[in-house]
Amino acid sequence: MPDNQDQRNLSLLYQRHRSELLAFLTRRVRCRETALDLLQDAFVRLMHSERGEVGNLRAFLYRIANNLSIDHARRTQVRGVNDEQALGLLLNETSPERSAVAGNTLDHLERLIDGLPSPTREVFLLARVEQLSYKDIAARLGLDPRAVERHLNKALSHCAAAALHAQHKDVSP
Predict the structure, then answer these.
(1) pLDDT at 59
(2) Which CATH class is domain 1-93?
(3) Arithmetic mean of pLDDT over the chain
(4) Which of 19, 30, 128, 136 is 20 to 30 A removed from 107 (C-alpha atoms)?
């Protein structure tokens, strides 16, 4: 688990480069909501990476973001053709063990989401489950789109912190 200094460094890196990285990703994927998702994913990956040998964290972060945008583009290209095929394969490959693991994971995620404060939980579910845009969520909940973004960032930070905590528990003796 990252120590307090490492967390402060990551927080500072986030504050310094969030806007420019968001602009970079928005240009790449041409959708602000998707860019925000990829931005969060980039910082989560950075948080879980081995950074000891990395000389330039900003460049490393851009590399992660670039790779995520490429992966997103590939998924988007393939998605239209293969969604039904992939669903069929997934349904056919489900084993009892896989179902049990998925059930435990879903239970954990449900408890994690239920632990969020009300407006943050609603924003998270509308964005991630119903896949509504920030604008649509704002209209539905009577919020400013920037407030929607803040609530979603709060929810994702909560999930990332829980993942770090779970990872630490798995590694601890």
Answers:
(1) 86
(2) mainly alpha
(3) 76
(4) 136
Query: Rounded to 5 degrees, what are φ and ψ at 124?
Result: -60, -50
pTM: 0.46
Q: Which CATH number fits domain 95-173: 3.30.1510.10, 2.60.120.10, 1.10.10.10, 3.40.50.10420?
A: 1.10.10.10
132-139 long-range contacts (CB < 8 A, ≥24 apart) are: 133/33, 134/32, 134/33
Q: How far is CA 156 from CA 18, 41, 127, 162, in A?
A: 15, 9, 11, 10
pLDDT band at 143 (very low <50, low <70, confident <90, very high): very high
* Cβ(120)–Cβ(151) below 8 Å: yes
pLDDT in tens, 113-123: 788 888 888 98
Round to whole Å and give the CA distance between 58 and 60.
5
